[in-house]
Design a protein that fits this description.
This protein is α/β, with parallel strands linked by helices. The protein has seven helices and 13 strands. Helix 1 (26-38) runs parallel beside helix 2 (57-76). The radius of gyration is 18 Å and the shape is globular.
Length: 261
C-alpha cells in the first residue's frame, strides 16, 4: 500500500455520498470525472465517496456502477484514482490495497511542485467519534433508517445528530455553546483546526480534510493552510492541486466550463 505519491495535477473531492438519495450527486460527479479526464488530472475521493452505511447495496451499485466505467479511463490515460477511507465507508478499511484502477488508502501524502499536501478524511479527529465511536456509528445507522422512512425525517435526524455532537464538544472542552474558538472554519468544532495544525508540524504546506460538511479555508499558525471542501448536499466544491498550489472551486463552475468548451 503506497500512501506517499507525486501528483502535479490532482482533483480532490470529499463527502459525495453516492447512493444516498439526499445528496443527488451522481450526475455532477460524472461530469467532474469527465472534467478531470479532459484536463489530465488524477483524482482523489477523500472519504465518504460511497454511502455504505445509510444506503442499500442496490442504490450504491446504481450510483457507483455508472461511475466505475469512467474511473477505468483514468488508467488508460496514465492517470490515477485514489480513495481515502471515511466513516460512512469504513468497511473499506478491510480492503486497503489497489483495486484495479483505484488505490484505497487510509490517508494520502502528496508531493506536488515544491509543496507537501496531506489528504485525510478527518473523522478520527471528531471529538464525539474519538470518545464514543460506537454511539457515533449508531447515530449514522439511525440516519439511514430515517432516510428509508422519508427524506424529511432524515434531515431532522441529521440536525439532531449535529446538535448532540455540539453539546458533547462543549462539555468535553468545558465550554458553553457558541464559545468555540473562531479561528477555524465556521460551524466546525475547533478540534479539526487543532488537528490540522498538528499535522502541518510534520512538514506539510496544506492539510485537506473532509467529514464535517463545513466548507472553508484557514491559515494555520505554522504558516500552512487547512482546507475543507464541505459536502455535496447543497453546493458541491472540489479542490484543485496544480504544481503545489491548492485552490477550492465550485463543481458547477467546472461543469459549466466543460459545457461551454
Amino acid at each position: 500500500m503506497i500512501t506517499t505519491v507525486r501528483e502535479e495535477r490532482l482533483l480532490v473531492v470529499s463527502d459525495v455520498h453516492l447512493g444516498n438519495r439526499m445528496f443527488r450527486s451522481r450526475r455532477l460527479f460524472i461530469e467532474l470525472l469527465n472534467y478531470a479526464l479532459e484536463n489530465s488530472y488524477s483524482f482523489c475521493i477523500n472519504g465518504d465517496g460511497v454511502e455504505i452505511i445509510q444506503s442499500s447495496l442496490a442504490q450504491v451499485m446504481r450510483d457507483f456502477g455508472e461511475c466505475a466505467a469512467y474511473l477505468r479511463k483514468f488508467r488508460q490515460r496514465g492517470l490515477r484514482v485514489y480513495y481515502v477511507v471515511g466513516n460512512h465507508d469504513m468497511v473499506l478499511e478491510n480492503f486497503l490495497d489497489d483495486w484495479d484502477v483505484v488505490h484505497v488508502v487510509p490517508f494520502l501524502n502528496v508531493n506536488s511542485g515544491r509543496r507537501r499536501i496531506r489528504i485525510e478524511h478527518g473523522h478520527i479527529y471528531d471529538p464525539a467519534f474519538v470518545k464514543y465511536p460506537g454511539a457515533f456509528v449508531a447515530l449514522i445507522y439511525i440516519g439511514g433508517i430515517a432516510l428509508r422512512i422519508h427524506p424529511r425525517v432524515y434531515v431532522v435526524a441529521e440536525k439532531i445528530k449535529d446538535v448532540l455532537r455540539r453539546i458533547f464538544f462543549c462539555r468535553s472542552h468545558g465550554a458553553l455553546a457558541g464559545t468555540e474558538p473562531s479561528e477555524g472554519i465556521p460551524g466546525e468544532p475547533s478540534a479539526f483546526r487543532e488537528s490540522a495544525e498538528e499535522i502541518s508540524m510534520h512538514g506539510f504546506d496544506y492539510v485537506l480534510l473532509g467529514h464535517t460538511h463545513c466548507r472553508g479555508r484557514v491559515r494555520l499558525s505554522s504558516g500552512a493552510e487547512y482546507l475543507n471542501a464541505g459536502s455535496w448536499f447543497f453546493d458541491p466544491y472540489f479542490m484543485e492541486i496544480q504544481a503545489g498550489k491548492v485552490e477550492m472551486k465550485p463543481v458547477l463552475d467546472a461543469v459549466l466550463d466543460r459545457s461551454a468548451a
